Amino acid sequence: MMILMATILPSKLSLPLNNKKSGGKHSFQSKYVFFSNKPYPKFAPLSPNLHFSYDTVSVITSPAQSKDNKITDWNTKINEVCEMGNIDKAIELLYMSPKTEIESRTCCSILQLSAELKSLQDGKKVHSFICSSGISIDSVLGSKLVFMYVTCGDLREGRLIFDKIRNEKVFLWNLMMNGYTKIGDFKESVSLFRQMLDLGVEVNSHTVSCILKCFAALGSAKEGKWVHGFLLKLGLGSYNAVVNSLIAFYLKIRRVDVARKLFDELSDRDVISWNSMISGYVANGFSEKGVELFKKMLYSGVDMDLATMVSILQACANCGDVSLGRAVHGSGVKACAHWKTTFCNTLLDMYAKCGVLDGAIRVFDLMSVRTVVTWTSLIAAYAREGLSDEAIRLFHEMDREGVSPDIFTITTVLHACACNGSLENGKDVHNYIRENDMQSNIFVCNALMDMYAKCGSMEDAKAVFLEMPVKDIISWNTMIGGYSKNSLPNEALSLFGDMVLEMKPDGTTLACILPACASLASLDRGKEVHGHILRNGFFSDQQVANALVDMYVKCGVPVLARLLFDMIPTKDLITWTVMIAGYGMHGFGNNAITTFNEMRQAGVEPDEVSFISILYACSHSGLLDEGWRFFNIMQDECNVKPKLEHYACIVDLLARSGKLAMAYKFIKSMPIEPDATIWGALLSGCRIHHDVKLAEKVAEHVFELEPENTGYYVLLANTYAEAEKWEEVKKLRQKIGRRGLKKNPGCSWIEVKSKVHIFLAGNSSHPQAKKIEVLLKRLRSKMKEEGYFPKTRYALINADSLQKETALCGHSEKLAMAFGILNLPPGRTIRVSKNLRVCGDCHEMAKFISKTLGREIVLRDSNRFHHFKDGVCCCRGFW
DNA sequence: CTAGGGTTAG
Questions:
Q1: What stretches pass through the bilayer (predicted)?
Q2: Are the CB atoms for A519 and A554 separated by under 8 Å?
């Protein structure tokens, strides 16, 4: 079924205005034949496509050469010259002639020729001649002028004359409408259409085709449907071109079903009908249907043309059907389509999207003309494969080759920089944008902000954001999401506040802002956003619902999280994973396991992240056997290869359970190189189980892998301190000092009346500092009375016990808890968050408070949640 | 008489 490229001939049976002429633009041939019949044999051998040279023609046709007739017929001469297509001579004669002798129809001839040659310059010369000679611009001449101007692309001038002559000929109206449509000014075209109807100008098939195109482009579904009814009344409903426009219109407004019905009922389908339907399927996301229809098209004997191939290649790209793509490639080459840039560009893109990068490169290499689209497609191809450096290199090469990037190129290359996290390359592109004055384009700005956010520079992103003349919802979401992901939750929340004053957030905004509430553990702000979600019906957005569950988990309310979780009708992998991880964080290991099993029963396949969550849940609840079981299920049943995170969970599980030697052996047997977290998990196990010797051995690995991380030094120091090895503690402190490292200062915060209060360790500058101190002292002595002893070893200072106690009293989580007791209404749960792990002494005190004061305390540390109630913590010592 | 309907990249 090999197919030749069909040239699109003007068609068809149903057309009233059959295009019988050989076509205006190509009419030289016929005119030449006519001319060669005249007695000038020496011109006969001239190729019909050759332009007549000025000199040659002037020899024969100059009126000055005429011998007897002094009153030369200038009009005839000019018409003759026009017949031959010699515009230069025609103009010259026009200006040589006595103005009064030139007839209107002569001007029409020259204008017609100017239009055919698309020579605005010559057309204007005729126009100014008309003006200076006083020829009245009647309806016929006016029409010709309009035709010339519109055809030559000067819509403004054409419109001026059009308005003056108030012609009621439908042709001229169609001409104007088409002119506006071509430049994308659909609104003006529609306005003309309305005027036409008001004036009672009788519309024809061309009019409705054009107006349907406009309404399709404007997305005016209602108006388009009205035209549909209107054209049926006019009896235009059986015209092939009209139905084709209707099909295209319905496909643009995404009414594929209506389009298909029209297509099926169309008796004389031509290649355009097929192409419209196929490309419409592809554009509406039904690529398979497009391919199916394509096969039907070939069966019914209609040859594909360039447009068909382009659509089908797109479909192949969408479906990843590279074999059909290759077949179309072959047909295209046979039909010589590979000389067409559009074909090659789509072909290149098809190979790239199907993951056949070398195929894309081969197409690129073989192309003789590479446009900006070609380069952009190849850059996108590299970026898609994660080869960002190569993508950026191509961008510079393209520039050197003299092909100017457009906004698509810029956004694509920015995306490559973003994926690469290469701020330097991104800044280079930013400079290029400034140099080429593209920084006011909204797409470019959004891509720039995204790049900066992904490269971690929110400062630069903000600078772009502030300078944007117009911001859309994507601009806001990019910034808010950027702040959220770069651990700047306060900035995210503050910008969200600015945003709601200017525009309505969408699902993406909400899904971006919830993690910020979560990271601050700001339940009040989270609830505000929840209210917003309910009021605006965003709970049905899967991403939003998932983020909401996650927020409640991280704000310390797993019960509410579960309630919402149960309300999500279709739970995806993320929904399940968030809940499982949530249970893990709160130490509800068994709930996590139940939920994990429910997920598998629901037919949702766990991925590596859900396995991290379940293993983590097991380790935080000390469920050793279950943890092992899941580690095996993961590999045996689910084909998930364990990564560092999974190994870390297992090490953590073994180490916490006191199986330190086994954990050490396990690390040594790992098929991948262990990192600091793996060794760190074992180190923390050593501290819990007081194995100083192993701790020292393990610490060596850790310090080598992450010498800057002070947390590990503190961990070892704590191990020494618990063993009362103060000399070693001192040495370690000196080591930290020598390396210029500082212990990360402890910081806790608590939300009271929607305001977040932050406490730093040892800081007494809070307005209520005195009251807090008094309360803590009172609690401390009460604790002693009831037999609690302060865990002074955590003070890490080798001093007398009173000093240590004082130091411990300054711990930020105690300050925050005390502030909560003093300022929250009685009975309200006290929710405190801390940036580091909770200290042992604070943990003891929280237990005590929960018992004596009967207050529930939820403490979130860097690792997990602690729920204190009636003197017990849910962690049962696993932290 | 002259014109119209389907075609590539983020």
A1: none
A2: yes
